[in-house]
Amino acid sequence: MWEFGLGAGAIAFQDYRGSDTTHAYPLPVPYIVYNGKFLKADRDGVRGTLFNQDWLEINLSFNLTTPVRNDRERSGMPDLRSTVEMGPSFDFHLFRSGDRKVKLDLRMPLRAAATVESSPRIIGWTFSPRLNLDLRDPFGLPGWNLGLLAGPLFADRRYHDYFYSVAPQFATASRPEFTASGGYAGTQTLAALSKRYPKYWVGAYMRYDTLAGAAFVDSPLVQRKSYWTGGFGFAWMIQKSSQVVEIPD
Fold first, then answer.
1. Shortest CA distance to 81 belongs to which of 108, 121, 41, 111?
2. 134, 127 in Cβ contact below 8 A?
3. 191: nearest Cα among 145, 234, 153
4. By three-state DSSP, how is residue 57 classified?
5. Which residues of the chain are under the pLDDT cut of 70?
6. 60, 116, 131, 154: which could join 127 in a potential S-S bond, CB 3.0 to 4.6 Å?
């Protein structure tokens, strides 16, 4: 029913989408698998299953952003707080191969975003419909899992305003005033490869972002319109439950 492991890894990414400031962070890597009737944690993420049919799942979806401090483009502007996003995800099962080694889903998470601080405030909504392709034993590699995900991102005006607007009091000669609008926010493409061994787990991912055509692309805070990010990790298995459950595909 559950497994737990712990390890280490590293990730590298921009302070925010479009920033020219990149940081690499060493991170602890918890490996958590939980297969409850409602709450699940597995290679598809942490989620609560609200509705489950052969062709449709409705789950709870989560996302986080890190705080932004001392970013070059934002010098003299207020720091950005970390944010948490939560909302339903409508996941349509488009295809399942007979041996269940190929799965194609359309995932449509709609999330509200709020700042993480003593007095949190809602900063808007995001919507990111994506095609997700999962391949087991890809290219004849037994035990490996390859995940491919791609799709556009959308957000409302308040969300884009939080990251990309420049108020008059913070405008400079090189950073003119800018008011962000809502709408299209670019596209993300991600590839992830992982394998669970009896005693440990290893995984890595690469993500490509393009902001071409985004509603905020003309903001002076956008310095890069396309870029790569990635990370890797490993975790040693520590303990698992004696209780077992059947896991539907």
1. 121
2. no
3. 145
4. strand
5. 36-53, 245-249
6. 154
Q: What percent of the chain has pLDDT over 90?
A: 69
CATH code for the structural domain at 2-240: 2.40.230
Per-residue pLDDT tens digits for 157-166: 999 999 999 9
CA–CA distance, 34 with 109 (Å, rounded to integer): 21
| Cα 208 from Cα 185, distance rounded (Å) | 14
Cα 127 to chain centroid, rounded: 12
Give the start-end residues of each E strand in 36-143: 39-42, 45-52, 56-65, 83-96, 102-115, 122-127, 130-136
Q: Is 15 helix (H, G, I), strand (E, B) or coil?
A: coil
Single pTM value for the model: 0.85
Cβ contacts of 156 within 8 Å, gap of 6 or more: 124, 125, 182
Which residue shows structure tokens 């905020």? 216
Name the 3-class secondary structure at 164. Answer: helix
Q: Tokens 């029913």 belong to which residue?
A: 1
Other beta carbons less than 10 A from residue 40's beta carbon: 18
